[in-house]
Amino acid sequence: MKKCYVFLALSYFCIGFLSAEEAKNEVKEKAASAEILVHKTVTTNHSVTISGQLIDYKASAGTMVLKDESGKSKAEVFYVSYIKENVKENNKRPITFCFNGGPGSSSIWLHMGILGPERVVFDAQGYSAPPYEMVKNDYSLLDMTDLVFIDPVSTGYSRAAAGEDAKQFHGVEEDVKSIAHFIRLFTTLNLRWDSPKYLAGESYGTTRAAALAGHLHDKHFLNLNGIMLISSVLNFQTISDPQGGNDLPYIVFLPSYTAAAWYHNKLDSELQKDFHKALEEAQTFAETEYTLALMQGNALNPKKRQEIVLKLARYTGLTPDYIEGANLRVDNIRFAKELLRKEHRTIGRFDSRYKGIDSDSNGSSFEYDPSLDSIAGAFTATFNQYVRAGLKWETDTEYQVLTSLGPWDYSKSPNQYLYVGETLRSVMSKNPNLKVFVGSGYYDLATPYFATDYTFRHLGLDASLLPNITMKYYDGGHMMYVQYPELVQLKRDLAEFLKK
After folding, report:
1. In three state form, how does the secondary structure of the chain look?
2. Are residues 221 and 327 in the same domain?
């Protein structure tokens, strides 16, 4: 091969078309583009006890090569699969394809937090310090279904092929197509077309899951049995008001503000008595008086406006002056900075129970999200140790836990908010056997539970299909499973969903 490089370089240089440096670079490019990529897999054998049942399983860490119609390699997608051993008809056993969100996140959170056979250990408050601990996960879903954790291109160890622009995978439709390509290929190569098939997604992964369900059905006629959505966002209008004029986020975030204020003891004595009653009151106010007030805009009667200001202050723990100054509209980042400002503390976006410390207590937003920084190191360290020592996947490439993939291509929804609820409604109508599980955390200020409720109430799903949706709520945040009681409850709920 080296002789070939030398010959090519000399030939380019000698005939005078290119300079020596140009010839060298072009040879490198041609050699890279000519590289033949193949599927790679490292398999190890393990066992775990789940609900008193000893389960032997095969773990495979590998890369699946995605090719275009001409056979040209476009990307290598890294995955980790867990397949139960000693199964009479393995091709009939359920299989679940799992991913997180971002976009720009690897699948590490669901993998090492709740679903996989190994998990990170946190204390009762959801914290951990090095050296971090990883244990056999007796709350894994491996007793119910085989598992495949997928890292989208540019996350984890997944990369675009040499000479390929990674941006071709960084978009709503592009992402869905590449993950669908992986699922179809994995299903085919592993003889799993007869298996009941599920998707499990978290955060933007729920956006991906809903869109993916439609794409798999319409493009590949691959029908799913179920979708598990954790901390959902199917309608981006519910979580963002980038230029003003969209009042919906302020309405659906309000009950989550109440939850945060309750936890930090910032509500009045009456509301502090009962958490769920406080949330119910906040929800009723949000979808009635508060909605009507925001709809009236500047036409709102001054007396009524003052009533709304005082009620907002009561349900958020913020001062009436701050509510008035914000024109009745406080976004989640400003709320996270303001609630504990007098104590010189901030609260988390992913989980409002966590506290942070900023250098400047007078700012309008926090410097970092304490609920992310408190757990990210533990997930990263344990996975990097585990993937090399436990799964025997050895590489010098950095595992990208979280990375920026901006600008993400939202051209699927020009001049509007991304909405995949219609895709979900459509595929549930076409495949009436499809079941959907939805799990939400009360303390989530990224994808609030009431926003998820709003989205599913507005799917326009036929009444006969409404029983196909299961909604569950947890005393946790975005990654509710880092709190042990919620880990236990979430596993119980997911297992019950799969049994049905």
Report:
1. CHHHHHHHHHHHHHCCCCCHHHHHHHHHHHHHHCCCCCCEEEEEEEEEEECCEEEEEEEEEEEEEEECCCCCEEEEEEEEEEEECCCCCHHHCCEEEEECCCCCECCHHHHHHHHCCEEECCCCCCCCCCCCCEEECCCCCCCCCEEEEECCCCCECCEECCCCCHHHHCEHHHHHHHHHHHHHHHHHHCCCCCCCEEEEEEEHHHHHHHHHHHHHHHHHCCCCCEEEEEEECCEHHHCCCCCCCCCHHHHHHHHHHHHHHHHCCCCCHHHHCCHHHHHHHHHHHHHHHHHHHHHHHHHCCHHHHHHHHHHHHHHHCCCHHHHHHCCCCCCHHHHHHHCCHHHCCEECCCCCCCEECCCCCCCCCCCCCHHHHHHHHHHHHHHHHHHHHCCCCCCCCCCECECCCCCCECCCCCCCCCECHHHHHHHHHHCCCCEEEEEEECCCCCCCHHHHHHHHHCCCCCHHHHHHEEEEEECCCCCHHHCHHHHHHHHHHHHHHHHC
2. no
Residue 369 lies in a domain: no
Residues 418 and 483 in one domain: yes
Provide the residue count of the chain. 500
Q: What is the CATH number of the domain that holds 185?
A: 3.40.50.1820
85 occurs within a structural domain: yes
- When divided into structural domains, the chain yields a total of 3
Phi-psi domain of 115 (left: phi exceeds 0; alpha: psi -120 through 50; beta: other): alpha
Q: Within this chain, do residues 255 and 210 fall inside the same structural domain, yes or no? A: no
Cross-strand bridge partners of residue 40 = 63
Q: Per the domain annotation, does 368 fall within a domain? A: no
Q: Domain range for residue 399? A: 41-237+376-499
> By the 8 A CB rule, do 358 and 369 touch?
no
For 417-439, the pLDDT digits (tens) are 999 999 999 999 999 999 999 99
Would the pTM count as exceeding 0.70? Answer: yes
Residue in the block written with tokens 């979708």: 227
Over the stretch 125-177, which tens digit does the pLDDT of each residue have? 889 999 999 999 999 999 999 999 999 999 999 999 999 999 999 999 999 99
Q: Is residue 310 part of a domain?
A: yes
The reply to whether 107 and 220 lie within a common domain is yes
Q: What percentage of residues in the chain have a pLDDT greater than 70?
A: 92
> Which of 357, 392, 418 delimits the end of a domain?
357
